[in-house]
User: Fold these one by one.
Assistant:
Number 1:
Amino acid sequence: MGRGDLTRRELLAAGAGATFVLVTGCGGSPREEITAAKFPGGTSYDGPPLTLDFWNGFTGGDGPQMLTIIDAFTKEHPNVKVKMVTARWEDFYTKFPAAISSGKGPDVAVAHSDQLPINAAHGSIVPLDDLVADLGLSESDFAADVWQAGIYQDRRYGVPLDMHPLGMYVNTKVLKDAGLDPEDPPKDRASYEAALKKLKSKGIQGSWASPFLFTGGLQFQSLLWQFGGELVNVDGSRASWNEEPGVEALSWMKSLIDNGYSPENIGQDADNIAFKNGESAFMWNGAWGIGDYGATEGFEWSLTQLPQIGTEKAAWSGSHNLVVPRNNKPDADRMQAAKVFIDFVTQSPSWAEAGQVPARTSARESEAFKKLEAQSALAEEVPYVRFPPPVPGLADVRESTLDQAIAQALGGGVSVKEALDDSAKRANQLLKFNHEKYAA
């Protein structure tokens, strides 16, 4: 990570799609046309038979689970077929806006909550205020924070399907062998560090500090919020992760290495491999770990809430949202069918079997969900999950600045403060560029 002026590559990354071509009609801007778009009223579809194109990045075990939900939907709505098309998420976010610009986008899609702002700013997705009003949906029907995460510039662009927060996985065999109680995992800084100290005395480095986004970057964001900090300022024009809470968060992660609780220079996914191999005891990982660990034969593990290391409880979370792509020639029947489909999918408790925590309260409180032990443990974090703020291009800015700073600091090349300050300085140029470009 160098210093000085931004490179051309970084400036392009700041826009996270600065080269998109948006098709406009009647001389108006994409945002103006989208604001004027209206969904048909009602909560059911009685029109002619049709097939909805549904795009997402569910290429793993979550794909078959979504297909079971689609099957259930078509049985209940035989005049609406759903064709699901999947692509790896990194490919999806490249193809999605390009398809919309060329008039070949889907009727419904899934996007992560941190991708809603940039797609809304580019006019790739339409506001869903009318849709949720027709369905009678409000914040009380969802977890509050995930509902708010679907809003950009006072308009709703996503209906949340789930939450996938960071939780603490426990290698129960390692804890038992070290004389620790796996039924009473550490819940705060003192008990966590005491457990790590005892594990170290048994030859186990209990909590590996990864320099990669998965999982070190997500751990840092959780700790940043736990220490009372924020990624950016209120309007998203300036980074704030280098302020005191961020320094405390990253310093604590660095202390895991300094105290011998974590090895140095961890490779990509090495922390996950070590956890499954019994070389560590605790793994701060997302909901996707449920499928991984559950499928590992003979592996003894449990899942609980993140320990409170800072002054308050907080856990990073992402969310899949149902979105409706922009269409220059909107079809009322297809829009109505899409609305009914979105309502059905977000109510399905079976989506949790893919390892997710349902965003919709009715699904989360269902008996079917309560039977899922690991997912229910993650749901305990719902009152304090945190989502990255709705700033267009923030994910790309973070990747080229903060993520590199975390790797540098954990590697010992520079001090925590210097790494964070340098990354914030570079990020501020990118954030200012985006703020000026996308400000209402």
Number 2:
Amino acid sequence: MMSIPDVQNLYARILAEFSKVIVGKPDILKFMMIALLSNGHILLEGVPGVAKTLMAKAFSKSLNLDFKRIQFTPDMLPGDVVGTFIFNAKSQDFTLRRGPIFANVILADEINRASPKTQSSLLEAMQERQVTIEGYTERLQEPFMVLATQNPVELEGTYVLPESQLDRFMFRIIVDYPSHDEGVRILERALKGTDLPDVNIVSSRDEILTAREFVTKTIHVDRDILDYMVKIVESTRDKNSEIALGGSPKAAVHLLSAARAAAALEGRNYVIPDDITQLVFPVLNHRIMLKTKFLTDINSSEDRYQYKALNQVLSGILSEIQVPR
């Protein structure tokens, strides 16, 4: 039987392995664990060279989950992602050749380089945990998690992710440059050689599924906490002078699921307001659209992804809503 200490122990084991190859970034691993335990997907956004791919590999290897990397390119077709039926001359029949989407952890590398048609091939898998190929539908093995990456700087040959695609992601995580001290530690590791330390397997698929079920069935949420979450999301739609498009009800559902997992990692079987406030930015920053006039007024219109402006708006919303006691 799983318990809160078991969930915390699982997190500590994964953090120890993650830290072998990634300098710093414990907050990003925490969001990865929260998404895994709450059936979510993550969009990792950052410039090249900040270890987005390495994070995904280290995370999946420590869990002993089936990992596939899909390098998205403009000429990629939906069949390259989900698979297709091919004719078998020996049996005189069509055989399903499964695509890389059939894995537990998918690294969708540079997802915004693929055409909208190819991007849409992920929608059914991310939402319904199944794939339909030429009328044939097959369930994906649980757990199933997409870790997508995109580069916010190099825009040539890319496509902006549509709202329907962005809404499938529980979090958009900004992977920033390392601090000075972290940069020094990275160079110290480089001095010792180019080989990366081996990541040990410290968990299993069954343990992850058990932990996820425990979080879903055990972590309690009071009615006033639910009211607090809904007020936050509603505030992004309440004719806010800075926001053109607010968060949907699905945003509130993702906030609830993530808050329960966050509470378990903190050693509690109930959600508190602090669990919610730490999740507001990663859950909502890719779901709201700011008005052009507001961006112009604060000189942020040149920032395509508007990190600082979004943070300013969401922080303002949080400051105006009474925190439940």
Number 3:
Amino acid sequence: MGAIKNDDFKKKLTSAVCTLLGAVPAAQAAQAAEDAGKKWDIDAAVLYYQEADNRVSAIEPVISLRRGFSGNRALNVKFTLDALTGATPNGATPTNVPQTFTRPSGSDSYVVQPGETPLDDTFKDTRLAVNGSWQQPVGRLSLLTLGGNFSKEYDFLSVGGNALLARDFNDRNTTLTFGLALEQDSVDPVGGVPIPLASMAAAGTLQPRQGGSESKTVVDAMVGITQVLSPRTLTQVNYSLSQNSGYLNDPYKLLSVVDPVTGATVRNVYENRPDTRSKHALYWLMRHRLKRDVVSGDYRFFFDDWGVTSHTLGLNYRWQPSKKFWFEPLVRYYTQSEADFFRIQLVDGQPIPVEASADYRLTAFNGLTFGLKHGWMFANGHELILKLEYYTTQGDDSPSEAIGVQRGLDLYPNLKSTVVQVQYRF
């Protein structure tokens, strides 16, 4: 359970195919030329993710295989396995009395104590993902990459394909990149698909369901340019567009309907989001090599037709005091506005909007990441990398929409998480 409500975590682990391809300097696309005649290159890693207060935890082993062939051709295959457990906010607001919630299956319930953020503690899932791509020159100056991806969870199935064309100009100092990806997702929530904005029913009774499964389609497109400014400096600019259509709700998320005077919860209803979403992102990267060290800065501007606008600023410095090891501290700042249909709660007796969600990922908040990577390089060409990151968010704990008892409670479930990763390349 939780293929959708775990979306935030998965974004930390993987991104849309086009964005991933565009975020790496296009000069690296020529790596296949150096791989000709080599055996398999293997990149194995294990990532551990933990949120504070006994919320979501995950362990993710990943193995990536690359084989170079003559003629600048290359095969890439990646296997990922996620195992997740813990508790996650269900969208309802805290209140001053105990609250009882029906689990998604409809056959059981759980109780949240007064003043506590309602968390669904049954979050558990396993995801298997396979990605593959084939890299093939097209003429002397172009490189075509064709790929596919498959991902399966208990309540979620995703199948997709992608293509990327990189074209060099200006004595290979300029590279234009065009990418396209198509993904088809099927959602089969535990207990069935809830009727949007219907009231949660008591455990053991007939639940408000409209079917067993839904689907959505995602089309991503990207265009980018990478420019070598000097032997030590390059820059990159990408624009990406993502069109989402179909079932975009989180079937496990609720909204509280509260008393207009006291703010006490009267009932809980299931969310409803628009069935389309257009997302735009502009990404800029600047990378400069010193004698041994490398400093990188990047900025990403995002906006969509849901009213969400975000800014991301990142800074990395790779310090290499010797040929055998290196350190790379990083810092990243993120800020976003809330979606047009985000609501802390709905008010009893007032008209119910057509679209509404209390998902904290759609509200306005700031995020800050600190991290450090440390790598050792061995004489046989192998490399061991350790990574540690800490991420925290801060939202409005007491928004102006708070009513009655809500004014004395924390209405934004701040997130604090830690990521530890061990990676070995050989």
Number 4:
Amino acid sequence: MKAVQEGAMLRYCFESFPSQGVIHGVYTRRGGTSGGPYASLNVGSTVGDDPAHVQANQQAIHRALGVSDESVVTARQVHGDRVAVASPQDGGKVFPETDAVITNVPGLTLMLRFADCVPVFFYAPQRNAVGLAHAGWQGTLKGVAGKAAQAMCAAYGCQADELYAGLGPAIGPCCFQVGPQVLEAVRAASWGRDELISRSQAGGKAHLDLWQANVLQLREVGVQHIEVAGLCTCCHRHEFFSHRGEHGHTGRFAAVIGLG
């Protein structure tokens, strides 16, 4: 990924995505107004931060992107696999119980919130459509990234091998320890591979590679063009919020994509 400085804020963008026609990126935690464990660019409204600070942070991102508050579409994320299709009338909408949103409407900007889960971006250049998914371990096991890719193909008539996908900063295999129940579910998945699991420890615990799990899932549904940021949010807590690294008391950083 490449970094774009926007005043005090920093946005990471995928090098495989075009610089024109698509607005996208992952913001760090820097450059906002929140304090304490939410310092400073927290966009999560359900983590205990002052709502006025959250709103100011969101609006600062909108201004940096050059979009209006009313053009931003988001969702109440629940670690599920529901994919919503954003239409022209959905500007400013919060989709209930949704973890992926897709659109082909120019001027709409999709925004989701993260603190270790994998932000999965989609761009279909031939159909001029974009998507964004929230894939933690639960969403990954439910196939949210693959379902988002399939939803784009169904809604916009594109082929999976036309899609460009990007996996943003998220907790890496270096830090994501999970228990035996999660490991068993991963092994049972159609895309499950032994290389996703490493460093077996006492009690059946091991480390899970969420990045590669989502890559394999996307390849299973036919997506070929995939860029992986390779940035662990837990290792880089100075730049990103990390639920695991900060013991659940932290903010959420923003991932955004839209058609210019």
